[in-house]
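Researcher: Quick one. two chains, 227 residues in total.
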Amino acid sequence: RKEVEQDPGPFNVPEGATVAFNCTYSNSASQSFFWYRQDCRKEPKLLMSVYSSGNEDGRFTAQLNRASQYISLLIRDSKLSDSATYLCVVNIRSGAGSYQLTFGKGTKLSVIP
Amino acid sequence: DVKVTQSSRYLVKRTGEKVFLECVQDMDHENMFWYRQDPGLGLRLIYFSYDVKMKEKGDIPEGYSVSREKKERFSLILESASTNQTSMYLCASSSSQSSYNEQFFGPGTRLTVL
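Model:
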């Protein structure tokens, strides 16, 4: 079983639509969770951290279900500028005491005019 | 503005050459990472370092080595480049203070091995 699994998409949605991405992780010792965004030919950048109680940042809502080992990202009122690949990321504490990120392969979103 | 820089955006090398990829961060971060990103495989961790002169193997260290002589600089070395090392290489850094600390990425080096 892969450590972090995402639907690769692509998701093609019209402007203004609501779209949801899901992610599952296999390591129950995972300590923190993130969504990163990667634009075409660019480096990944943090979109938002995901907290146990769920959190919202403008049009973006992230949810975490530790029991089911499941993370989600909801984007409301999609904009053309939201077109990107969204990476689900899980953080595990390594034996050396530092933290190691494991990335999902990403879900590609295209918002269409 | 926080910054992670990589020595080259594009690099073309021949099979068997020794290749150095350099990464520098200006945020005084303890942790630095090297990833490669390939279509269909996502980002995979090669090596990371949590302190000067310290290094840890990631998921795919074979064929690579690293060097961290100064806190701000983390080098990835391909001792004898092979065609299957053609990839996008991304460096990142983060602070050790909390597990929620963000990893900041450099712009990447697209390496082609002929």
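Residues 94 and 103 of chain B are 5 Å apart (CA to CA).
Researcher: Thanks, that's what I needed.
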